[in-house]
Amino acid sequence: MGQKIAQGVYDFRIMREKGYRYVDKTDLLYPLVTRDGDALYFISRPRRFGKSLMLSTLECIFRGRRDLFKGLAIDKMDYDWTEYPILHFNFATMDVETLEGFKAGFVARVRRSIVEAGATYDPTQAPNDNFADAICFLARERGKPVVVLIDEYDAPVSAALSDPAKATAIRTTLSAFYGEIKNNASDIRFMMMTGVTRFTQLSVFSALNNLDDLTMDSRYATLLGYSEEELDANFDEDMREHAQVMGLSYEDYRAELRRWYNGYRFSPDCETRVYNPVAIAKTIGLKRKTFAPTWPKTGRPSALINYLTMHDIEKRDYENVRGVSESTLDICNLKAIQPVSMLYQSGYLTIKDFKNPYFILGVPNEEVRIDLNSLLLQYAAGEGRLTPPQRTENGEQRTERPCGATGEA
User: Is position 382 within any domain?
Assistant: First the structure.
């Protein structure tokens, strides 16, 4: 196909300018960006599922960069390509070792985003007040409402789950910040917030009652991740080459690829399952002779690891978890989080079936099964709670596996 497969690039502009392959999702973004009024959205997905790429795509749309979308679905639609002022925040990989350190880092992140948008930051005011002032200033100065993009809204709370008091204090700061979205909704053209975990007590959920949660919306079940049809349309030649490298027929190759990396279902009303995009990029891009875990090697989810440093994991059959209500999958009380909730929101469990009003959950695929088994093996070996998380090179948190743990089922 002539285009490179990106394995560590999550910026839409760079992908398009450098000739990386982009799986077109703009047909799904079109109804979101053209919504007239109350275009305030939230979506939760496991880590490394394309959330940052989606936000950078939205940023380019709202900057009016039609040149970057040549040949894509939205370029053929009647979108007007108006340029809007944009406030883009990313709260991933923040230092939460101390509450003071978090507050300093939070101020720095907010200040940088506000200044980059063309507004000023007043150090005598709280971050939430500066956020509100920036929305008002940009809307008045540019004569257009503001686009707000928030990546990993939940990361600071997730990174502090091993200390519930600290996590609660961090949540309070974030709640005040996110509350300004409702307070200034009349000056906001569009808002998209992403995260791994759905903390329903954050004011973005409790106060922002017009927030449109897309997490389980069947219309957007494939917004993040790749369907079988998308693999056919974008990676057919690469998959056929990889099948030859592995010495497999194409049918056997696709069956094994599906077993290893497919299986994520995000809506009770849509049975379509998707592949983890990072797993596909690393597997098809490298074309190794064997399939191997990819997603777990980028670091275990910080929310899960910080939770497991303080809690025991349940001994149960995680291949078939029955009787789970939708409310169970949300996280309300930081001191009473259920292991199933953490495993689901972290991507270790997914929807297998839905019998109203209950979900049946299970492990999505083989690479996740291997990593989950290594966690269970650690507990079976009598080692109890996990060791404190350490940082990987890309800022993710990881946990050292016990000596001799292979992760084999």
Answer: yes
